Amino acid sequence: MSVLTLYRTLIRSKLDYGALVNGSARKSYLKILEPVPNQALRICLGAYRTTPVCSLQAHEPPIELRREQLSLQYCTKRKSNTLNPTHKTVFQPLSSLYRNKPNAISSFGLRIQTSIPAINIIKLNITPSRLSPIPPWLLTTPTILFDLLQSDMMQTKKSNTPSDIYISKYNEIRSLYSQHIPIFTDGSKLSNHTATAVVFKSYIITKRLPNSVSIYTAELYAILLALNELSKQHKHYLFFSDSLSSLNSIGNKKLDYLITL
Q1: Contacts from 251-259 at CB under 8 Å and sequence distance 24+?
Q2: What's residue 151's pLDDT?
Q3: 3-state percent breakdown (helix, strand, coil) of the chain, nearest 5
Q4: Which of 4, 128, 211, 251 suits a disulfide with 192, CB 3.0-4.6 Å?
C-alpha cells in the first residue's frame, strides 16, 4: 500500500494536473497516456506483464474515469459560486457555435453535459461559498489548546480514564482563562440521524442536520452555530469540543483562503 501511495502522490498527481484541459484533446492523443498508470500499477501491485488491465483497475479507476471524476468535482465547485466567471460557460455552454463544426472539439461545458445528469448536480443542494467580508489580515488565528490530550492521559482509552482526571484538567483550564465565557459544542450521528448542539451558560441550541452529513461536518457546524450566537459586547470565549479533527482543521486553516457559509 505504501508503493501505491507513492504512485498516487508522485505520478497520478501529474496526470491529474490540467485534466480538465487535457480532456479536450483527441482520443488518439489521450491514448498515449494510458500505459503510464497501467505500468505504474503493475509495479505497485507486483503484477505480471500479462495481467489484464481490468484487474489492475480494481485498485485504481481508468484514467478516463479519473478525468471525468475531476471534471465533475470542478462542476460541483462552480455550482457553489454562481458569481464565478466560469459558472455560465459550464452550465450554459454556447452549443450554437459548434452546430456547423461537427469535427471541432467541444468546449468543457458541452463535453461534461453528458456526465452531469448522472449525479444530478443541477438539483443538488450545494452550500454556496462566498468570500468573508472581513479582510484576512484583520482576522486573528484562534488559539487551540490540546491540554486534554497529554501523553499521560492518552495511555489509556478515553472510556477507561477516570472522570475525575478530566474534571481536574477542565478546572485547571478554566482557572487559566477565568475571564473567558465557556461554550460547549458537540455533533452526533446515530444510524441515519445527525444533529448538532451548542451549550451556553443559560441556554442550549440544537439543530437537526441532513442524514448524509458526516460527524466531522456536524462538529464543525456546532462551532459555527456558536460563533453566530456570540455577543459583540464580549470578546473572550472559550470553546470546548471533543472533535480532534475539527480542532486540527481550524488550527491549520490558512486565513488567506478563509470563507464563510
Answers
A1: 251/141, 251/142, 251/144, 253/141, 255/136, 255/137, 255/139, 255/141, 256/136, 258/132, 258/136, 258/139, 259/129, 259/130, 259/131, 259/132
A2: 45
A3: 50, 10, 40
A4: 211
Spatial distance between the Cα atoms of 74 and 78, rounded to a whole number of angstroms? 6
What confidence score (pLDDT) does residue 258 get?
Answer: 40
Residue corresponding to grid cell 458537540: 186
pLDDT, position 114 = 80
pLDDT digits (tens, 9 = 90+) for 166-202: 888 889 999 999 989 999 999 998 877 899 999 998 8
| 198 contact partners, CB below 8 Å, separation of at least 6 | 183, 184, 185, 204, 205, 206, 222, 225, 226, 229
The residue-averaged pLDDT of 230-246 equals 83
> 143-162 pLDDT, tens per residue?
888 887 764 445 556 667 77
Domains of the chain: 2-126 (no CATH), 131-260 (3.30.420)
Residue 116 CA to residue 161 CA, distance in Å, equals 50
